[in-house]
Amino acid sequence: MTSPTDLRTAVRDRPLVLDGGLGTLLEARGNDLSGRMWSARLLRDDPDEVRAAHAEFVDAGADVLVTSSYQLAYGVGLDDDEVDELLRRSVVLAREAGEAFVAASVGPFGAVRADGSEYTGAYDVDVDVLRAFHRRRLAVLADAGVDALAIETIPSRLEVQALAAELDRLGRPDLPVWISLSAASSGFAGADLAAALADAASAPGVVAVGVNCCPPDAVAPALAAVPPGVVGIAYPNSGEHWDAAARVWRGEGGVPTALASAWIAAGARLVGGCCRTTPAHIAALAASMR
């Protein structure tokens, strides 16, 4: 098992390749992810599928695997003790998939609501509610033997502030953390994204800040807003666009390797893909980076 210090050192040594869209791959493998728990349902119902999907990304060249815990939290119809167990299982399955760092996914408050608010940050709750929501999950994942906490797709500055406060309360500055914002969120307007990135960079244990789950062309402006001297992270969506009328994806998908090189030149040290990116896309990215 790798240690938390290893990831911190590795990020300093060279850019690392993140995995791609785990949910995308699980669906391509024939799994139904239409329920409220999304890919986290398979932690309970078919853990072998989760392990196998992770392994595909390792084989593609991913240095870092992100667990399937994004949409798993308390109050989703499971007993709290079962949520604890599934959170820990998400780490074990990623660890068993191959030689890679394991980052535990911590999704936003809106992901559990499954009402689209994860892309707006329009929760109509205060910071104390957000802190309480994230508290137990952060603690369980921090104690599950991970190499990092992957706090991702955060859509508002308020939620960044809540998470930073809870990381301070957690008292684990030795455990690497990345905080990645949803650059496409309507919760960020004007200078809000830059301010949220600054808040994220000041949180205890943070080794990288940046963006994910956004169009590739939104990455460069976001990286330009990362505070000086702070490592950047970028794992956008494939670049395809959903045609709601025809119910099909339009455009060319993939992680644009030319842009990825520019992101690395701009300070990103963790680069991969999010929605609609596949092991083939990650293999191409890994080849271009090495």
**Poorly predicted regions:** none
> Alpha-carbon distance between the termini?
24 Å
Mean pLDDT comes to 92
The biggest beta sheet is recorded as: 8 strands, parallel
SS-derived structural category: alpha/beta
Helix/strand layout:
Layout: H1 4-13, E1 16-17, H2 22-28, H3 41-45, H4 47-60, E2 64-66, H5 80-96, E3 101-106, H6 109-113, H7 127-142, E4 148-154, H8 157-170, E5 177-182, H9 192-201, E6 206-212, H10 219-224, E7 232-235, E8 241-243, E9 248-250, H11 257-265, E10 268-271, H12 279-289
Parallel strand pairs: 1-10, 2-3, 3-4, 4-5, 5-6, 6-7, 7-10
Antiparallel strand pairs: 8-9
Helix pairs in contact: 4-5, 4-12, 7-8, 8-9
Describe it for me?
The structure is a single chain. The strands form two sheets. Strands 1-10-7-6-5-4-3-2 form an eight-stranded parallel sheet, with helices on both faces. A two-stranded antiparallel sheet has the order 8-9. Helix 4 packs parallel to helix 5, helix 4 runs parallel beside helix 12 and helix 8 runs parallel beside helix 9. It is globular, with a radius of gyration of 17 Å. It has one domain: TIM Barrel (Alpha-Beta Barrel), CATH 3.20.20.330. The chain has 290 residues and is α/β, with parallel strands linked by helices. The longest helix has 17 residues. The model has no long low-confidence stretch (mean pLDDT 92).
